[in-house]
Specification:
The complex is a heterotrimer of chains A (530), B (322) and C (371).
Chain A: H1 4-16, E1 20-29, E2 32-42, E3 47-51, H2 58-65, E4 73-78, E5 81-82, H3 88-93, E6 96-99, H4 111-116, H5 125-143, H6 158-171, E7 176-180, H7 188-203, E8 207-212, H8 215-221, E9 224-229, E10 232-238, H9 244-252, E11 270-280, E12 286-296, E13 300-304, H10 311-319, E14 325-330, E15 333-334, H11 344-349, E16 352-355, H12 359-363, H13 370-374, E17 385-386, E18 389-390, H14 392-405, H15 422-434, E19 440-444, H16 452-467, E20 471-475, H17 479-485, E21 488-493, E22 496-501, H18 508-515, H19 524-529
Parallel strand pairs in A: 3-8, 3-9, 6-7, 7-8, 13-20, 13-21, 16-19, 19-20
Antiparallel strand pairs in A: 1-2, 1-4, 4-5, 9-10, 11-12, 11-14, 14-15, 17-18, 21-22
Chain B: H1 3-32, H2 40-58, H3 61-85, H4 90-113, H5 136-139, H6 145-153, H7 158-176, H8 178-188, H9 190-195, H10 200-226, H11 238-248, H12 253-270, H13 273-280, H14 286-301
Chain C: H1 6-31, H2 36-48, H3 51-76, H4 84-101, H5 107-136, H6 140-163, H7 185-189, H8 205-222, H9 224-234, H10 236-242, H11 246-263, H12 265-273, H13 284-294, H14 299-322, H15 328-343, H16 345-370
The chains are: A alpha/beta (530), B mainly alpha (322), C mainly alpha (371).
């Protein structure tokens, strides 16, 4: 910031009281307690990390701080004085800016229009836009946040969109910046760039709260870290005085099993053979740009990559609900990639089971009861049929057995899917798909939003299926999971496979480079990719 | 077709387009803010009745206009409560409002006037009369320009000129003011407005209220300017034609003017089959002309001729995501 | 999480909505200077007090069962078919063509033939918007509204220019031949020794409608197609994952919906008027919306709601006859039912959910204390 006195004033404040102090915050959504009696102190001019698993209550807590939700109980203190934050307006006035996980931008507005929205200087737009244009130049110079003010949001990339979100906060003169899972959609390189920007903001006296579930980011960027677990704050420690192992334990409540016990793979025939697979989405963008992959019987092929680099499309086209071109063979016979025989039903008939990435949107009908979900996708099976009608009794019986075997709790086939926890929902899907005895299992983000106990169980099931000689294609954005489960790892970037590695001959760093599109041969591909 | 016939045709086009234009702009405000409104018809009808009824009782058409706007606003408020506050289904709410207006207007008309669901004919100050613009009489005999000015441009009721003025005003409000920016944003991505510290609910209610006012004027025009009194179901599907025009106009103010003028022309031609026959050399069924706006809208909606993309958040109640 | 028990969801919520609609209607009646209690009594006696009244009530109810089921099946696929009116109009055209141009030997064959035509015409009229929705993404609510108007224009054209008998000024077809006339409830019940009004229009179509209710229940809850339709309605993305084609479901659900709306014509056109007139549907297509909403899209609910609306219609007609309350009171009641059971559903539901949640919390707390 060009104004030195501001920096000094903040520096003085820094020595006296926390930039933010939350005291005893509680919040419930209906019967779900998202935050329980949470207290936290964030010192000014620091980067404070909040880490926890999905669903631990991090985002809820920050949304309360930003006035997006009202806390049921508790107090918010900002720069040493108690502050009421009934709405986002109050949060903005208190100098808080927030960059949400899902950006809050108007797609068909320009960058400039998005930045002034809600912070206009008068009833007419012209002067506001002119002023914002000038300020934007200053901000760009101060923090290296360059962006074309007249570009439409829908025309710029996610990294740039995130920049606009940060600029929005700075334009509103935020001193405290909250970032919610900012790297989820970024490549490691883009993430590094973001962290450089955050460092610069910190050196200018801004206070930053970084919410993430990634240990690496916490260790690399934060000064202090608070750990949340199941709606509660379990610890706050200096980053320099802790270790990833300790944080992981605090996050899940006990030692994490980072390695899965498994025998060496016994490889069989090639089950899935993909050559030159391409997928173009409805906007005409090429999402898969010529994929070559093979999966053998008895092995787990792990697909690593930052979310949004074509993994979802790969699962969709193999699962039969996206059209593609190229050649895919299953047990030597070609698979239709378009047309009538390219749908979920045909895929299941061919022996492909699919645990989709998003169980709530795809794998389950949340309003359907467990037994109805157990038939989902297999509802044409002869054993579920009684003449023209469905044999509901048989499905319920089958479901009860599956729930028993997969330890689904509560084991009630008549309970709607939405009433089960994330882990138990995933077990319902897994039971349905695995018990079909498929030749090939497609499985995406198997443990997203799943509690630790269920994670172990799910991992064991995947390994067991492999040991039965089935082929498994695993997609996960969690590198640890990929490393723990895979017999072979393929890294995807921008719709292409950047390379394949053996898990015991690689590490997170090498995979991270591949995920950023940087191959061993140099950075040429990365340039082509973007 | 001679020049005078053309002028007459365009004159009646303008008269018929006016209520469509007002209702179309009304829908534009609402839908641009993300609130679908298929209740334009009902609001117009309610306004038509109340403005005619009150004008008839007071003898003052301006008081009538206010009453019409009030009635339309009341239904707007209902739509707002259902679709904004209680996050109900906006389409179903619109359907309910249409029926509510259709039933209540007759019920009240019968109770007040006992004339089988109509109001007495309006006369004198209880009606909007045509305004003769300055110089219209003097120019009337000048060839070409005379009829154009005296017949087509001059001589309409004040509401016609208000409707025409509403077009640039709407454009200006939408694209040149803070309110317009926020209104458009709330229809595209309400979360962007909410996180910017601006009330989504407030903006949407404001939009729905503007919609109510414009529908009110449209309804008043029907019963106190276009015709002299209220008759049962007198909106006769105009609210839906306005809706069609809105889609046709791709939710833009100037396009709305052209779309409603076009649909107004169809209406005018319906009463002049002789004109069509003389121009294109064949008979066109009046039923076909009547259905033409709907058919054209379906074609536009199908995307065969220029895709109409509605505001992205339209029809969805805003719920803060967790 | 489910906050409310199922019985509250299925019975309590619609009942409260209905009660609210009833109270406001009573206030309206009061406001126009009439006695709501007397009006209600008159409605009950007029609609249910005689077999004549019942005959009309059931006649209307038959219409509403068809249109209510039509809206309901579309709702299950999360499609709002607001075009029941137009589809019923086209169904009428189908019935008229079947009855006018085919020399049926017996009413039973005529009924089958006319029903097929009615269903077919209605289905076609729904299939076009369905196809536009499935393939072109055109909002089905808007297109079905437009198709109502186009149907009205089409019907107007065919009646005035094609089907009108020579010399007639009335835009209507000629009377159908005797052989196509359907047996009324009087005809059906007198062999059983039950005396039923001869003048009332309720006819064998009622049985068809009841069969349709049962058939649709079977379809929705017991067949794979119904399972797929509901799955698609709940989640399009999940349906795609499971290999359920959105295009197929949209088309099939709307075709069934349109066919059901079209089928109404065997009641009003073939059973009652015995010729096709301009405004034969009398808004029954729209009442289907209220009926489906009140019946929570369940065929049994639709059946009950249709009878209720049949009662309201007949009762309303009696009111108009004997008091100065116009028939439009029914339109108001209909609007209020749509409002409370549809648009303001959350208004009724939210306080109830709070109540049940509080009760459950209290119970949990009590159990906790007991342990």
């Amino acid at each position: 910031m060009s104004d030195e006195t501001t920096v000094k004033r903040q520096a003085i404040a820094a020595s006296t009281s926390p930039a933010i102090e939350l005291k005893g915050i509680s919040k419930a959504f209906g019967p779900v307690q998202a935050n329980k009696d949470i207290s936290i102190r964030v010192m000014p001019g620091t980067i404070h990390g909040i880490i926890g698993e999905n669903g631990a209550g991090k985002s809820t807590l920050m949304s309360i701080l930003y006035g997006f939700y009202k806390a049921d109980k508790g107090e918010v203190w900002i720069n040493g004085s108690k502050t009421e934050i009934p709405d986002s307006q109050a949060a903005i006035a208190a100098g808080i800016g927030m960059v949400f996980q899902h950006f809050k931008l108007v797609e068909n507005f320009t960058v400039l229009e998005n930045i002034i929205l809600g912070a206009e200087d008068g009833r007419l737009l012209k002067p506001s836009l002119a002023k914002a244009r000038r300020t934007l130049v200053e901000l760009a110079n101060d923090y290296g946040l360059n962006v074309d003010p007249d570009a439409l949001i829908q025309d710029i990339g996610v990294g740039m969109q995130q920049r606009v979100e940060i600029l929005k906060a700075l334009y509103r003169q935020a001193d405290i910046l909250i970032l919610d899972e900012p790297t989820g959609v970024l490549t490691p390189a883009e993430a590094d760039q973001l962290f450089r920007i955050l460092d610069r903001l910190k050196s200018e006296g801004k206070t930053i709260i970084l919410i993430t579930h990634k240990l690496r980011e916490i260790m690399e960027t934060t000064d202090t870290v608070s750990v949340m677990r199941r709606g509660e704050m379990t610890a706050t420690v200096k980053t320099a005085e802790t270790s990833p192992a300790e944080l992981a334990e605090l996050m899940v409540g006990r030692k994490v099993l980072l390695r899965v016990d498994k025998k060496p793979a016994t490889l069989g025939e090639v089950v899935l053979d993909i050559k030159g697979l391409k997928v173009v989405d409805d906007k005409g963008v090429e999402r898969l740009r010529g994929i070559d992959l093979q999966v053998r019987a008895g092995e787990v092929l792990g697909i690593a990559g930052v979310a949004g680099n074509g993994q979802s499309e790969l699962l969709e086209v193999l699962g039969g609900y996206a059209d593609g071109t190229g050649e895919v063979r299953l047990n030597g016979a070609p698979l239709d990639l378009t047309g009538r025989l390219s749908d979920g039903q045909s895929r299941r008939n061919r022996g492909i089971a699919h645990v989709p990435e998003d169980r709530q949107r795809e794998g389950l009908i949340m309003e359907y009861q467990a037994w109805e979900n157990t038939a989902f996708g297999y509802h044409h099976d002869s054993e579920y049929r009684a003449g023209l009608l469905m044999n509901n009794a048989a499905i319920r019986e089958d479901t009860a057995e599956k729930m028993e075997r997969f330890d689904v709790r509560p084991p009630n086939p008549k309970l709607a899917a939405k009433n089960f926890s994330g882990g138990n929902q995933q077990k319902i899907v897994l039971a349905r798909e695995i018990e079909r005895n498929p030749d090939l299992l497609l499985i995406g983000q198997p443990t997203r939003g799943v509690d630790i106990g269920a994670i172990e169980f799910i991992h064991q099931q995947i390994v067991a299926l492999r040991d039965q000689g089935k082929a498994i294609l695993l997609v996960s954005v969690e590198l640890e999971e990929i490393l723990a489960l895979s017999d072979r790892i393929a890294v995807m970037f921008d719709g292409q496979v950047m390379g394949e590695r053996q898990p015991d001959q690689t590490d997170e760093k090498e995979l991270g480079l591949l995920m950023a599109g940087i191959t061993d041969t140099g950075a040429a591909t990365a340039a082509k990719g973007t | 077709m001679d020049y005078l016939t053309l002028i007459q045709l365009l004159d009646s086009t303008l008269r018929l387009a006016t209520p469509l234009l007002l209702a179309c702009l009304a829908g534009l405000f609402s839908e641009r803010a993300g609130i679908f409104d298929i209740g334009l018809e009902g609001k117009m009808l309610a306004a038509a009745f109340f403005s005619a009824a009150v004008a008839s009782l007071t003898g003052n058409v301006w008081v009538g206009l206010l009453a019409g706007i009030g009635a339309s606003l009341a239904l707007s408020a209902l739509h707002g409560v259902a679709s904004i506050t209680f996050r109900g289904n906006q389409l179903i709410s619109g359907v309910a409002i249409n029926f509510l207006a259709a039933g209540m207007t007759v019920l009240i008309a019968q109770s007040w006037f006992k004339q089988g669901g109509r109001t007495p004919s309006l006369m004198g100050g209880a009606r909007f009369e045509g305004i003769t613009l300055p110089g219209a009489e003097a120019l009337a005999d000048v060839p070409f320009i005379g009829p154009l000015y005296a017949e087509l441009i001059s001589g309409h009721s004040i509401l016609v000129y208000m409707a025409l003025a509403a077009v640039p005003l709407t454009w200006w409000l939408l694209y040149r003011t803070r309110f317009g920016l926020r209104l458009r944003a709330v229809g595209e991505n309400p979360a962007s407005v909410d996180t910017a510290g601006v009330s989504v609910v407030g903006l949407r209610y404001a939009a729905v209220a503007i919609c109510g006012v414009l529908c009110g004027i449209a309804g008043a025009y029907l019963s106190t300017a276009l015709q002299a009194g209220f008759v049962k179901d007198m909106s006769a599907g105009r609210g839906f034609i306005a809706l069609a025009a809105l889609i046709f106009a791709k939710w833009r103010p100037w396009y709305a003017l052209w779309a409603t003028l076009l649909f107004g022309l169809f209406g005018a031609l319906e009463t002049r089959p002789d004109v069509i026959e003389s121009v294109i050399g064949m008979k066109v069924q009046s039923q076909f002309l009547g259905a033409l706006p709907y058919i054209m809208t379906v074609v536009i909606l199908a995307g065969f001729v220029g895709k109409a993309i509605p505001p992205r958040a339209g029809g969805e109640p805003y719920v803060k995501e967790r | 999480m489910d906050v409310m028990p199922k019985w509250a969801e299925v019975v309590l919520v619609p009942l409260i909505s209905l009660l609210l609609a009833g109270i406001i209607s009573a206030l309206v009646v009061l406001a126009i200077g009439e006695d709501p209690v007397a009006a209600a009594k008159l409605m009950v006696s007029g609609a249910l007090g005689s077999t004549y009244g019942w005959g009309y009530t059931l006649y209307y109810a038959t219409n509403f069962m068809f249109t209510g089921l039509a809206v309901a099946i579309a709702f299950h696929a999360r499609l709002f078919n607001i075009g029941g009116e137009g589809q019923a109009m086209l169904g009428g055209l189908g019935v008229a063509l079947a009855c006018l141009y085919i020399p049926w030997p017996h009413w039973s064959l005529a009924l089958v033939g006319a029903a097929v035509m009615a269903g077919l015409f209605g289905a076609i009229w729904a299939a076009i918007p369905a196809w536009l929705q499935a393939k072109r993404g055109s909002h089905i609510v808007i297109t079905t509204i437009m198709f109502n108007f186009i149907a009205a224009a089409l019907l107007n054209y065919t009646l005035v220019n094609m089907l009108r008998p020579k010399g007639s000024m009335d835009p209507a077809t000629a009377r159908f031949s005797e052989a196509t006339n359907l047996p009324t409830l009087h005809d059906l019940l007198s062999p059983l020794g039950i005396a039923f009004s001869k003048a009332a229009p309720a006819n064998i179509s009622l049985l068809v409608a009841i069969a349709a209710c049962f058939g649709l229940w079977l379809l929705i809850w017991r067949t794979r197609l119904g399972y797929e339709i509901r799955a698609y309605g709940y989640s399009e993305s999940a349906a795609k994952y499971a290999g359920i084609s959105p295009v197929k479901i949209t088309m099939v659900a709307m075709i069934i919906s349109g066919a059901l709306a079209g089928l109404m014509a065997i009641n009003n056109v073939m059973g009652e008027a015995e010729r096709l007139v301009l405004n034969s549907t009398e808004g029954a297509g729209f009442i289907g919306i209220a009926v489906a909403l009140m019946g929570r899209s369940h065929p049994l609910g639709v059946f009950i709601a249709a009878i209720l609306f049949g009662f309201l219609y007949q009762g309303g007609a009696e009111l108009a006859l004997w008091t100065s309350i116009p028939r439009e009171l029914i339109v108001v009641i209909q609007a209020l039912v749509i409002l409370f059971t549809g648009a303001l559903d959350n208004m009724v539901r939210m306080p109830l959910e709070k109540l049940f949640l509080a009760r459950r919390r209290a119970r949990v707390a009590k159990e906790g204390a007991a342990n």
